[in-house]
Design a protein that fits this description.
Helix content is 35%, strand content 12%. It has 284 residues and is of the alpha/beta class. The protein has one domain (3-279): Alpha/Beta hydrolase fold, catalytic domain (Rossmann fold). α3 packs across α4 (138-148). The two termini are 25 Å apart.
Length: 284
């Protein structure tokens, strides 16, 4: 384990996750998350997991700081769709409101702190190589994972990915300061709004460009197969998603729009399924 991750564990980061397969997948009534058992690793906290004999696909569902690890809010129900084919693992974003994970705000390395959580969870589950599908902020998370662990992520699907919109340069920072931050401070008296401001500044304003976590040169040279699923709302700029799709040498792109009308979603699911199947290691 590298020194950075050891430091993260020592500070008490909590991550919640679950590995699902048909024989173990079940919704907890009224809670919107899957049932299972929690693991404890010193102060690192908890996860719900059961090993299953299927190739792992990590789904970064907790792209919304205000939802935590709750199923049903993403437009493409990835866990439900793929649980019979893959070991589906999803994580509770650190410090998400309504979530169950907590930890320090690492104001000098926010993106890498989340990557530490995701990779640490996969390490705990004994997962070496995996595929990943991420919604919203899951887009920047995915690109950072491809930078941090290119030998482990065998294929990736950034869906409705977050990106920088020059005409609205403080959009994501402002959303964090007005919606997520005040709620976090209210339930976490050890965190102050000045700390939140420093964290969000580093995350969204220090290098406000493109996908936030990697450069265009990185995307041009990325050899991991990527299926980009564009969106076109203020936080999910179509132009950035398509720029990634055009740059990455092994990129594919979904139809657009794929979320609406809702009758298109099954077709989008089929495209994701075909993409994952095409890049799933034959030894799995």
């Amino acid at each position: 384990m590298d020194p950075t991750r050891r430091n993260i564990l020592a500070t008490g980061v909590a991550a919640t996750a679950m590995a699902a397969a048909p024989q173990v997948f079940a919704q907890t009534a009224g809670q919107g998350r899957a049932a299972g058992r929690f693991y404890e690793k010193g102060p690192f906290a908890s996860a719900m997991t059961r090993p299953v004999p299927a190739f792992p696909c990590c789904s970064l569902l907790a792209g919304d700081w205000n939802r935590g690890c709750r199923l049903g809010h993403e437009p493409l129900q990835s866990i439900e769709e793929f649980k019979s084919e893959y070991r589906c693992i999803f994580s509770d974003l650190r410090n998400a409101n309504d979530g169950e994970s907590s930890g320090p705000l690492e104001v000098d390395r926010p993106w890498d702190a989340y990557a530490d959580d995701h990779l640490g969870l996969m390490d705990h589950l004994g997962v070496g190589k995996f595929m990943v599908l991420g919604f919203c902020i899951g887009g920047p998370f995915i690109w950072n994972l491809l930078k941090r662990a290119p030998d482990r992520v065998v294929a990736a699907v950034p869906a409705q990915p977050v990106g920088f919109r020059p005409e609205m340069p403080t959009l994501l920072y402002d959303g964090g300061m007005t919606a997520w931050g005040p709620k976090l401070v209210k339930r976490r008296p050890d965190i102050t709004m000045p700390t939140v401001e420093r964290f969000l500044t580093k995350m969204w304003r220090t290098n406000p460009d493109f996908v936030f976590t990697v450069t265009r040169d990185f995307v041009r040279n990325c050899q991991t197969p990527v299926l980009v699923m564009p969106d076109d709302i203020p936080a999910h700029p179509y132009a950035v998603a398509m720029e990634c799709a055009m740059m990455a040498p092994k990129a594919e792109v979904s139809m657009f729009p794929w979320k609406e009308p809702k009758e298109r979603i099954p077709l989008a699911v089929r495209q994701v399924r075909s993409f994952l199947k095409a890049h799933r290691p034959t030894s799995a």
